[in-house]
Amino acid sequence: MTALPPLAVYLHVPWCVQKCPYCDFNSHAQTGELPEALWLKGIGDDLDEDLAQDRWSVADRPVSSIFFGGGTPSLLDPKTVSAALELLAQRLKLNRDVEITLEANPGTVDASRFQELRIAGVNRLSLGVQSFSDRALAALGRIHGSAEAVKAIAAARGAGFERINLDLMHGLPGQTIPEALADIDQGIALAGHHLSWYQLTIEPNTAFHSRPPRLPGENTLADIEAEGVARLAAAGYRRYEVSAYAQAGQACRHNLNYWTFGDYLGLGPGAHGKLSAPPDQAADQALIVTRTRRTRTPKDWLQQRVTPRSITTAVTPKLLPEEFMLNALRLLDGVDEALFEERTGLPLTTVNPPLSALRKEGLLHEDRLATTELGLRFLDRVVARFLAD
């Protein structure tokens, strides 16, 4: 290994106005004032803990992207966002053109809030629109309506945001093909340069899992996806990841870092991180990859007075091939074969048996680590072939 992977930072904001029935994220409905000062202190404590680990060289590595996720980060006062960014800038080496994304709910922002976030340093917004149908939004338990979504997009543009992502979902309760495609058409008409478009899935530990809604059938879902992908392509949006579409040069750098098995600090309640380090000279492997996980419950995380503030788990060499492929094969272009060794520290020969078999079956390309069109349709099965015994 010649260099450690790129480094990004994820900050988790766990609070929202109302928990959506499909959401399995670490988000919690909050009544009353947010404990923003305590959250900011906790972010600093999380960062200090990671900085204290010299083996990760966190302080010396340039940060390419920062992502405020949640929950609903747009509930934060822009001054808190600014303070968090200042905290990171004081302790880390931020690239001059660092991408700073903040997720926003159209029901929690106005024009002045967007302007303040822009001044604070946020240069990319991700708006959780989900649908432009009031009926569908009500079924999803969203706190905004279609008119608010349209107004929020215009306000973001008016505030000077040039990079805007719209989150849209399909396969919604009772949704027809025309309704799903109407969302895509309106998203294309109003969007910035990036769209995240993904199918609603019913996850455990959600209200929808306890009381499942009636969702479109498989044939309807297939028709929606095929026509939606075609319309996005015709409008100049290239599908670069399973559920991400971007115009030229507008792919989300932060998410690309995930898919290419880059490193990232996970700060905030329940946040996950991935960090690589050179091995001890006596070690038999070329790279040490560690996963970190913070205390999940916001109250416990805010009041935590013990160290460590996170659980760290080494990813064994046996598990690294699956973890790498699980991410890299989500990219439609895949990655160069050399990246496997660079990011895992393992020789490509480690995965020769499944790699050769998948290529013979027409599921992976011959010249790089990328699925064919057929392989993309059966992505879960392809990745499973790299599972350790």
Structural account:
Helices cover 37% and strands 21% of the residues. It is α/β, with parallel strands linked by helices and 389 residues long. The chain has two domains: 7-256, Alpha-Beta Barrel (TIM Barrel); 317-389, Orthogonal Bundle (Arc Repressor Mutant, subunit A), CATH 1.10.10. It is globular, with a radius of gyration of 21 Å.
What are the main properties of this structure?
single chain; 389 residues; alpha/beta; TIM Barrel; Arc Repressor Mutant, subunit A; 2 domains; nine-stranded mixed β-sheet; three-stranded antiparallel β-sheet; 15 helices; 14 strands; globular
State the end-to-end CA separation.
Answer: 26 Å
Please name the CATH architecture of the largest domain: Alpha-Beta Barrel
Task: Fill in the CATH topology of the largest domain.
Answer: TIM Barrel
Radius of gyration: 21 Å
- Uncertain regions spanning at least 5 consecutive residues: none
Number of DSSP helical runs:
15
CATH class category label of the largest domain: Alpha Beta
Topology diagram in text:
Blueprint: E1 7-13, E2 15-16, E3 28-29, H1 36-51, E4 62-70, H2 78-91, E5 93-104, H3 111-120, E6 124-130, H4 134-139, H5 146-158, E7 164-170, H6 177-190, E8 194-199, H7 207-210, H8 218-234, E9 238-241, E10 244-246, H9 253-259, E11 263-267, E12 272-277, E13 288-294, H10 298-303, E14 310-315, H11 320-328, H12 337-344, H13 352-360, H14 373-377, H15 379-384
